[in-house]
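Running this now, will post back.
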Amino acid sequence: FMQSYTSCLPHSFSLPLTSNEHLFCSVVLIDHGSVTVSSRSRKIRQTPFLCIMCDSFVDCPPLGLESMRVHDSQIRASSTLRTGLGPHRGRLNIQSGIEDGDMYDGAWCARHEDKNQWLEVDAVHLTKFTGVILQGRNSIWSWDMVETYKVQLSNDSYKWQTCMNGTQEAIFQGNLNTETPVLALLPVPTVARYIRINPQTWYSNGTICLRAEILGCRVKVSNDNLDFRHHNYKDMRTLMKSVNDECPNITRIYTIGRSYMGLKLYVMEISDNPGKHELGEPEFRYVAGMHGNEVLGRELVLNLMQYLCQQFKEGNERIVRLITETRIHLLPSMNPDGYEVAYEKGSELAGWADGRFSYEGIDLNHNFPDLNNIMWNAQEKALEKSQDTSKVPNHYIPMPEYYTNEDAMVAPVTRAVINWMEEIPFVLSANLHGGELVVTYPYDCTRDWAPKEDTPTADNAFFRWLATVYASTNLVMSNPDRRICHYEDFQRHNNIINGGAWHTVPGSMNDFSYLHTNCFEVTVELSCDKFPHASELPVEWENNKESLLVYMEQVHRGIKGVIRDKQTKKGIADAIIKVDDHEHDIRSAEGGDYWRLLNPGEYKIIVWAVGYFPSMRRCTVGMEPRATICDITLTKTPAEVLKQIRARGGKVPQDVQLRVRALRLKKLRASTKVLNQRRESQRLSRHSSKARAAARKA
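Update: finished.
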């Protein structure tokens, strides 16, 4: 995960990044000109001007507490021990005088020793905060430092949100001594105006004192050289071709079908090896324009493909890493017929619904098979028969027969997208809409046809994380001062909501993706205005750029690996991967590789496939923004071994016969042991019953 080093910090910085379960970034030590990755305990490079960046870090400079660019009036505190230890002294590397107690002491120190103390910095402008650097108190006579702390963010200094690490409040590692600065990176770069450092623990024989620097970038209108305008079908094809011409080595244009009016559904693939699925590399997709008049998603996807191409050529390390480690598919217009209707009328005259539906009048977000009720009905029947509901399929649910009929009311574009979803082993996706500011997650369909009801999936915690990642990095959604779009205040839900809790949507693409394939998908409502004016597109790009990138990076969370045959070492397709206590399974792809999105934690993984004995392994998902490798091998059953040999017309070798016989004996012994234990248990139970009966008679 160590991506780059650059001379972005002054020589005086020594930065130990201590490994901490609450941080997404691992251990780095920079001390006396040497760099050590503590988890590996080896030197990387000797240099006195070194700054390490990891996955969640964007190259944002210090705000200027140390350089005095930040004025004293911009720094406040919850309390102050005395004037010389006021908030104005909480600046990185500030030095104290020889005498303690004068006006020029070496830190900010709180009057009270409790967890309600804080040091606050006003960045004046909206700023994308990326990290905090902390030091203890500079003093000859005292030893004071903060050992752990939280970070809080606000846009008005009244309403504060604590920086989250998944579903928990992030606890950042502070200082182990008073002089060595410690850098902590926020799990997700976050836009706000104010930032607070909230100490949680401090040196036991000292008090709450700290010096700090804040890393952040001022938010401004885009400087990216992108084609900010609305693109009709012809313009869209031209733009996509220009991107392909500019970056032929990492892009490929392909089509997945046609609309009712014959317009092609173009997809841009961006990968270091376009046209090929690479073993172990996850597949990601963005789909826009399902509703033709919700056009912002279309333009953002077109902007995104331009941006990725340009930044890859310029050597942007974050983008290079994303493209080399991920196969990205971008579908800018799922409903091109509807878009052309809205485009003809223009931004202000398209109305609320013109172009929403396909040419045939179909709402595409209700046009996928309703697999939810098929699963729920099967579970209810199992309960009625007192059967185990865990035996009911919870993934790869087949499409109902009525849906596959030629006369079924299914749009050609829906069929095309379903075929696309079945052909490529997608892991993560987002469906870009417009008309609101909120991110919704499955299930979209409610049970028993309730108009609205919270209807969580088995992966509810991870879906909430995905939705939060996008919403918290979106500059408009994360602004608490924004007004509501229409009549629903989604800010009280932190701008995310379960789809069913908003309104029921039977036959949604999100639910179908989750229940029919391995792919997790959310819906992003990008803006109050479904068809914003072209002049607003640069601002909308800046509002969503970080969200689009950081959401794609989530495809590298959880576990991944390859399911292989123990003897041949070949990958096993369609192996079922079950996470214990998670009622949603996935399957391995054609080459045996799989990806299971999970939050940090320890998991028991059970895998089985036709003709193989099941296998179990425990895998731990850490806080780092990369998947844990969890390869698993399966052993063929004796019957399968003999079946394959005989199918080839060969004679069973003696050594194979012996191995098969040994496996059968092993299985027989195991089953005999279980039977004997069961019989002994029954005998003891009968004996105990007789003894109790005899005692009652006596």
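The CA atoms of residues 444 and 630 lie 31 Å apart. More later if anyone needs it.
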